[in-house]
Design brief:
The chain contains 8 helices and 9 strands. The protein has 237 residues and is an alpha/beta fold. The chain has a single domain, classed as Metal-dependent hydrolases (TIM Barrel, Alpha-Beta Barrel). The strands form 2 sheets. It has a 7-stranded parallel beta sheet with strand order 1-2-3-4-7-8-9. Strands 5-6 form a two-stranded antiparallel sheet. α3 links the parallel β3 and β4. The chain binds zinc ion (2 copies). One of its GO terms (molecular function) is phosphoric ester hydrolase activity.
Length: 237
């Protein structure tokens, strides 16, 4: 049985280890306590070349333990290409779920994973305008996501389908078969899937279908400021 997303958890919270976020892990922890969360996943952005992950993990693990609040860790990395390559240091991916590594890698659709590497939203729109079928773009995105989930082993899908509006498409452009293939891979690999407050995705059609398939859905704010930790309005609706 799976339920959720439960809004007493926030599974995607950034700290100052991400250059676009303003709060320290300690400030985020305090905010999680104020919001009466039971779980917080502290996550920061990485690329293949990132070196701060050991320091980030030691800072998070040195935080005071608060009763009733579980602190989880992660790194957020984009899916690089159609093969499902992940933009994270290989040693970080190899250490997922071990004492030396973060709990999970958050797989992000910040770009479209093309056959030759990441396509920006603008470059993708240009290809669609030039005749590339939107259905092929959607299939490439979902296939790459499934490959990345299977390669990672311990993943979480960050804001799934957040890229679609940026390339002029909608979640309704994703056929049921692809939603189901993604769900199957998530169940097979134990990948959690976010319902993301910041990006307001995925929508109810995908979320309901995934929940029915047994996918573990988790709520996230994608907070870049402690004031936003555990604060939900869209997700609750
Ligand atoms: Zn992201
Ligand atoms: Zn994020």
């Amino acid at each position: 049985m799976s339920t959720g997303p439960l809004t007493d958890g926030d599974h995607h919270v950034h700290s100052t280890f991400s250059d676009d976020a303003v709060s320290t892990p300690a400030q985020n922890l305090a905010a999680a306590q104020v919001a009466r969360l039971r779980e917080i996943r502290m996550v920061d952005h990485v690329r293949v070349s990132t070196t701060y992950v050991p320091e980030f993990l030691s800072v998070v693990r040195a935080l005071p333990r608060l009763e009733g609040l579980t602190v989880l860790t992660g790194v957020e990395a984009k899916i690089l290409d159609a093969s499902g390559a992940i933009d994270a240091p290989p040693e970080v991916l190899a250490a997922l779920g071990t004492p030396a590594g973060p709990d999970r890698v958050l797989l992000a659709d910040h770009q479209v994973p093309g056959p030759d590497g990441p396509w920006s939203p603008r470059a993708t729109r240009e290809r669609i305008d030039a005749g590339l079928a939107p259905a092929d773009v959607v299939e490439m995105l979902v296939t790459a996501t499934i490959r990345a989930m299977r390669a990672a082993g311990r993943a979480q899908l960050a804001h799934p389908f957040s890229i679609l509006p940026k390339i002029g498409l909608k979640e309704d452009d994703v056929p049921d078969e692809l939603l189901d293939a993604l769900a199957q891979a998530a169940v097979d690999t134990g990948t959690t899937v976010e319902i993301n407050e910041k990006w307001q995705c995925p929508g109810p059609r995908a979320a309901d279908r995934w929940r029915a398939a047994g996918v573990q859905l988790v709520a996230s704010t994608d907070a870049h400021d402690a004031a936003d930790v555990g604060v939900y309005s869209w997700v609750r609706g």
